[in-house]
Amino acid sequence: MSDELPVSVHKSQPVLIFPEKPTPKCSLYLSNIDNLDFLKYHYELLCVYRKSTPIEDLKPSLSKVLFHYYPLAGRVRNCADDEDRLEVDCNGKGALLVEGFMDFTVDEFLKDNTWLNTAWKDKLLFKVDAQSDIPPLVIQVTYLSCGGMLMCITIYHCMADGVGGSKFLHDWAYIHTDPNMDLPIPPVHNREMLKPRNPLQVPFDHPEFTDVTQDFDIPTYLQSQTLAPSCLTMTQSHIQHLKNSCEPSLECTTFEALASHVWRCYIKALSLPSSLIIKLFIPTIMKTNIEPNLPIGYYGNGFVLACVETTVKELVTAKLNHIVELIQNAKRRVRSNDYVRSVIDIIEEKKAQPVMSTTLVISDWRMLGFHELDFGEGKPLHMSQLASEAWCVFLPFIGDSNAAKVLVSIPKSIVHKFEYYMVNDFIQEMTS
């Protein structure tokens, strides 16, 4: 498929979908983790369906679910007493829903793997330019000439992590297919349980917030380049071979083996200075590590960043099992109530922010359930981010739960190099 899609014509201006009944008018506190700078953006989801659901049928079910998730019908704003913090004005102003039409078919859309392009955003997702009073939820449904549809959903990340976003969308689908049923697990809005302690206590070192003065800045380098998406499918056989290169001496998960391999190939492809200190951030769920545990219905950001730190030279020359061990140690380190509380307190005490200068973030979307989102006409044929971003994301391979898709943006001039390393380093691990 070419980089250009047919023009998507919006049939009407965006409509506001309000909660079906009156909801509380209040300010919702967002936690220190919700307020991290790198979460102050909308994350985007694209689902491709063979059969469409009429937009007039989606409106009432969205209205019903927004009654339960009323903060998503509010607006994100700066706190009056602290311009650096965000809160939610739960004012019921509504979520934005947009309808579009495209003279295109599902099969044309999915005929190869080059379906990620930042230029698509203007066509497939209505853009909201708002510096304040930000709508946290925007949805565009684009109907295709074949009877299929593209559903693009964007949620402001400070409101919900991937687990929380998936819960909201599945609750919407649940209400849509059975509007007379109550939600099985009501959402929990209260984020006060992640408030800092008094007095503050920071007994841990936090490498995710610690900067190192160096001569090279990866984000600056990437911003100077034309970026392109690379999306590779790793089959069950590929993944098992990676895991076998670590075992039996070191048992590891699919994520640990794959993340180790991708990080090494990514850094090799960038050809960075060998002495450069680099970091890998892994969002790690902490909902059951904190005491008391966060409730099942909690949909705010419930993760901390496990941080792996090494040098370029060590990473590109290491065996896979060594990198896996670094990742396992980093994940193990953050999985305690004391560490999570220390993260919350250091953000409060020092206004700490994750240092992104030499960092790759790998986020695992495989188990979030976005690929099972069914509004009554079947599950998606395809699910991904709408367009490539700087983060690396592991996506489910629909039809094979043992495979995975690896999506990462890298300079267009070295996409071939990254993909070469992904294949050839893989072969070396198999034969070494």
TrEMBL record:
Family from the record: Belongs to the plant acyltransferase family.
Annotated PANTHER family: OS01G0104900 PROTEIN, TRICHOTHECENE 3-O-ACETYLTRANSFERASE
One Pfam family matching this protein: Transferase
Organism: Papaver atlanticum
Record's protein name: Uncharacterized protein
Listed GO MF terms: acyltransferase activity, transferring groups other than amino-acyl groups
Highest taxon in the source lineage: Eukaryota
Lineage, top ranks: Eukaryota, Viridiplantae, Streptophyta, Embryophyta, Tracheophyta
InterPro entries named in the record: CAT-like_dom_sf, Plant_Fungal_Acyltransferase
